[in-house]
Write a structure and sequence with these properties.
This is 2-oxo-4-hydroxy-4-carboxy-5-ureidoimidazoline decarboxylase. Pathway: Purine metabolism; urate degradation; (S)-allantoin from urate: step 3/3. It holds the Pfam family OHCU_decarbox. Its EC number is 4.1.1.97. GO terms for molecular function: 2-oxo-4-hydroxy-4-carboxy-5-ureidoimidazoline decarboxylase activity. This protein is mostly helical. The protein has one domain: Oxo-4-hydroxy-4-carboxy-5-ureidoimidazoline decarboxylase (UraD-like, Orthogonal Bundle), CATH 1.10.3330.10. It is built from 9 helices and no strands. The longest helix has 24 residues. It is elongated, with a radius of gyration of 16 Å.
């Protein structure tokens, strides 16, 4: 579905699965669809900014693979995730696995970061630093990371052949 005009004109039933791949929060998907037509890509991205509830954050996290692992789901979100994590060096796998386990023990959900453009060392440093966050603060951090991922993926919906920002 290249371009904003096609996005604005597409039937909601066609957009719903693509938007769910961007952010698996039904309220967000409904809001993005209801906000059409968008005058510009910037207006779409602004309209897609939403503060998720803690339950929505937890539900959205469930659709993401652990950093350093491949998605078991397959499909477009798995391809996007693999591209987004492409800077994570596989040689860090053991350290990431241990850090992910510590994070999950601490917070009860997997660690999530918008990994596009981040090295594996940077991801590991961020993960380690976030282990000190209070749980409530960490959910707000994850909310921000989900927003970054959703915006990145919305751009991919509009520009599927553009490999920049993968």
């Amino acid at each position: 579905m290249p371009g904003l005009a096609d996005f604005n004109a597409a039937p909601a039933a066609d957009l719903r699965p693509l938007l769910t791949e961007c952010l698996a929060v039904p309220r967000w998907v409904d809001a993005v669809i209801a906000g059409r037509p968008y005058a510009s890509e910037e207006a779409l991205l602004a309209g897609a900014r939403v503060d998720l509830t803690d339950d929505e954050v937890r539900a959205a996290i469930a659709g993401h693979p652990r950093i350093g692992e491949k998605s078991a789901r397959g499909g477009v979100a798995a391809r996007w995730s693999a591209a987004e994590q492409s800077g994570v060096d596989p040689s860090l796998a053991d350290r990431l696995k241990a850090a992910n386990a510590a994070y999950e023990d601490r917070f009860g959900h997997l660690y999530l970061v918008c990994a596009t453009g981040l090295s594996g060392e940077r991801v590991l440093a961020d993960l380690t630093a976030r282990l000190t966050n209070p749980e409530r603060d960490e959910l707000r951090v994850v909310n921000g990371e989900l927003a970054k991922i959703a915006a990145l993926r919305l751009r991919k919906v509009l520009h599927p052949d553009d490999t920049r920002g993968s």
